[in-house]
TrEMBL record:
It catalyses: GTP + succinate + CoA = succinyl-CoA + GDP + phosphate; succinate + ATP + CoA = succinyl-CoA + ADP + phosphate. Belongs to the succinate/malate CoA ligase beta subunit family. Residues 9-215 form the ATP-grasp domain. It comes from Streptomyces corchorusii. Binds 1 Mg(2+) ion per subunit. The gene is sucC. One of its GO terms (cellular component) is succinate-CoA ligase complex. ATP binds at residues 45, 52-54, 94, 99. It holds the Pfam family Ligase_CoA. This is Succinate--CoA ligase [ADP-forming] subunit beta.
Length: 376
């Protein structure tokens, strides 16, 4: 789970990282009061879990409390990169001399943590990383040793950050460990004109597996969750919305992931990950189909089931019952294999539903689903 900027800021503050004074609100009138408390001028910041917020108009410097109220009124309720703005943070403006980038992130490729740091931080960090990769230091961090002040000094010097940022680097690592985070990022970490080091913007991604001991963040941030994912979760389905056009339904996380790869290999993009698990009953299948088909981007659906505990004939019955219930308007490609596959296929053949076709292999099914998505 990603935290909001104001939550990340709170964590930084809890761990002794200097941050600007700030308050959170959902009301323009209160925004005016907050700006007054901050000294008149303020930075009004939309609280949305998406990058590029500043460039999208979600970070605005205002000169006085009246302007804070007006800006808050304009910003609240709008969408930034598709994320509705419900909450604002108003922060005390800072006189920036230099902007740096620092983060710790779990690097799944190496199975360890990486410190990533760059002396040219700020809103253009992606361009810097793309065009001047040598300007970005990437230093492995041993999970057991962590970031000592010696290590922090190494990271700072490798990235060309001033030595006085080392204390923040040590504390930022403490945030990662204490809060069960997979990512802690500060961009920008600034040196102010007065010579102070401040964390101006933060991103923290918590490890969902540790949610049980991070109760302060609540159970789930349904607010920003995709509505289809919320709907699927309510029906007990493991569904993740993706950006493509081929709907995917399968049983077993491993099989579903392979299916995504094979569909991508056929030049199409998966629209979702949906694992219906072992008990592929008619009801579960119908729920799965209705969630996948509710995504307007879906142009074809690939059902890839390997019959195990649930035999393929039961799955075939489930698919037909689901089709009768959901009444799809998009074509379905079904690949059944494993326990009772022949009987399952015969059941689908006998029904000869105009929108349901079968494929003998996973590759063939993916190719056909991709083709249908591009012609349907
Ligand atoms: P992001 O676009 O979501 O990363 O939003 P940030 O909070 O990082 O702000 C984007 C940019 O706005 C920063 O890189 C700064 O250049 C600028 N900015 C943010 N807060 C302040 C501030 O207090 N003073 C000044 N001068 N600029 C700020
Ligand atoms: Mn930022």
């Amino acid at each position: 789970m990603d935290l909001y900027e104001h939550q990340a800021r709170q964590l930084f503050q809890d761990h002794g990282i200097p941050v600007p004074r700030a308050e959170v609100t959902r009301s323009p009138k209160e925004a005016r009061e907050i700006a007054r408390r901050l000294g008149g001028r303020a930075v009004v910041k939309a609280q949305v879990k998406t990058g590029g917020r500043g460039k999208a108009g979600g970070v605005r410097l205002v000169a006085d409390p009246a302007a804070a109220e007006l800006t808050a009124r304009q910003m609240l309720g709008t969408a930034i990169n598709g994320h509705r703005v419900r909450t604002l943070m108003l922060a005390e403006p800072v006189d920036i001399a230099e902007e740096f980038y620092v983060s710790y992130v779990l690097d799944r490729a190496s199975g360890g943590f990486l410190a990533i740091a760059c002396a040219q931080g700020g809103v253009d960090i992606e361009e810097v990383a793309a065009h001047h990769p040598q300007a970005v230091a990437r230093i492995p961090v041993d999970r057991a040793e962590g970031v000592t002040s010696t290590k922090a000094g190494e990271i700072a010097s490798a990235a060309g950050l001033p030595p006085r940022t080392a204390d923040v680097l040590v504390r930022l690592w403490q945030v990662l460990v204490a809060e069960d985070a997979l990512l802690v990022e500060v961009n920008p970490l600034v040196r102010t004109a007065q010579g102070h080091v401040l964390a101006l913007d933060g991103k923290v991604t918590l490890d969902d597996n540790a949610r049980f001991r991070q109760a302060r963040w609540g159970d789930e941030d349904t607010e920003q969750r995709d509505p289809l994912e919320t709907e699927a979760a309510a029906r007990g389905l493991h569904y993740v919305k993706l950006d493509g056009e081929v709907g995917i339904i399968g049983n077993g996380a491993g099989l579903v992931m392979s299916t995504l790869d094979v569909v991508a290999g056929c030049g199409a993009r998966p629209a979702d990950f949906l694992d219906i698990g072992g008990g592929a009953s008619a009801e579960v299948m119908a729920d799965a189909l209705s969630v996948v088909l509710a995504d307007p981007a879906v142009r074809s659906v690939l059902v890839n089931v390997f019959g195990g505990i649930t035999a393929c004939d039961t799955v075939a019955d489930g698919i037909l019952a689901a089709v009768d219930r959901v009444r799809p308007t998009k074509p379905l490609v079904v690949r059944l294999d494993g326990n009772n596959a022949a009987r399952g296929r015969a059941i689908l053949d006998a029904r000869a539903h105009p929108l349901v076709e079968q494929a003998a292999t996973m590759d063939g099914a993916a190719r056909r689903a991709a083709e249908l998505a591009h012609t349907a």
